[in-house]
Amino acid sequence: MIDIKKLVADATQWRKGFHQHPELGFAEHQTSKQVADLLRSFGLEVHTGIGITGVVGVLRNGQGPTIGLRADMDALPIQELGAPDHKSQHKGCMHACGHDGHTAMLLGAACYLADQKTFSGTVYFVFQPAEENLGGAQKMIEDGLFERFPMDAIYGLHNWPGLPAGDIAVNDGAMMASLDTFDIIVTGKGSHAAMPHIGIDPIVAASDLVLRLQTIVSRHVSPLESAVVSITMFNSGEAINVLPESASLRGTVRCLNPQVRNQVEQLMTDYIASYNQSPGLTVALTFHRGYPVTTNHLEHAAIIHQVATNHLGEPHAHHNIQPSMASEDFAFMLEQCPGAYFWLGVDEGDSVALHNPYYDFNDKVIEVAIQFWCSLVTQQLPLR
């Protein structure tokens, strides 16, 4: 019988190893190989190359339901500024979002369940690439994830600074916002900066547009809904004495309601159309649909809350808290399969934010997560 303390120690070392050797989305070759090798050593059936670098481990124990547990593996293009003993050895790349912890914790759960076999059915351990902006979940789905590994439900977690370490939070509906991006090109007529009257200034028009776009949320979206329209890039001009021919704006839209998402896109389109009525000025919008709203299925959110309550106690099981306007591509999986996404607290009062160059996963929650994953499996796939 496996020793849980030794397993946690092993998982902690796996986590630190992943942290030292981070890999960006769709380039997680060494990470995927290590994950696959460990799963095989636990006795699982292993499938690789799903979604380019994705891995699925299959653990069967008789007849029964089938569920999926998902962890993401990719790192971020950030130079690590902290100085842990396991600091990233890859310049300009680090695990600033805790995916190293997610991977290690799910490996720990796979090891424990393979040893104990305290369930009846099949568990699919889904190790996903490229969660950070590249849509690795969608790529795995396109590669036949749910056709090759049919699941009655799928579950995913994310570590969460701001939530007490070891606590779990889940919502009945939205957990994370949709993610869309846009590009706007404003084209006028270039001229000498000393003679603006003979040109058509795209910078003034683009500046006005920045302000008008802010009224979408403040004056057109209900205050009872949530939406964000942020201009994050404004580029124009090459010389101080020249009015440029064009200006470009780029930004992001976040929403917690699919209907609001559609409304914001339509309003942006309408605003752009009104600018194109100005003589000599053209404005072009390209709206890029990204990640959907991460929306939990009610039944499976209730299951997560029940397991958390049973496993941790009511004070540590948070239900229907404020969702985040950040985004998560697990949303694609929840569009294809029932399930739920939840947060695991890592905060002990001194946590820095995710995507911060000083971020380091809190290893103290590894044992909680392994035991939680195992409790979820044994409850959903009870021994017959």
UniProtKB/TrEMBL annotation:
Names of required cofactors: Mn(2+)
Residues of the Peptidase M20 dimerisation domain: 181-274
GO molecular function terms noted in the UniProt entry: metal ion binding; N-acetyldiaminopimelate deacetylase activity
Keyword Acyltransferase in annotation: no
Xref: Gene3D superfamilies: 3.30.70.360, Zn peptidases
Highest rank taxon of the organism: Bacteria
Listed GO biological process terms: diaminopimelate biosynthetic process
Keywords: Hydrolase, Manganese, Metal-binding
InterPro entries cross-referenced by the UniProt entry: Amidohydrolase, Bact_exopeptidase_dim_dom, Peptidase_M20, Peptidase_M20_dimer
Pfam family, one: Peptidase_M20
Keyword Protein transport attached: no
Binding site for Mn(2+): C97, H99, E132, H158, H355
NCBIfam families per record: amidohydrolases
Protein name (database record): Peptidase M20
Organism of derivation: Marinomonas primoryensis
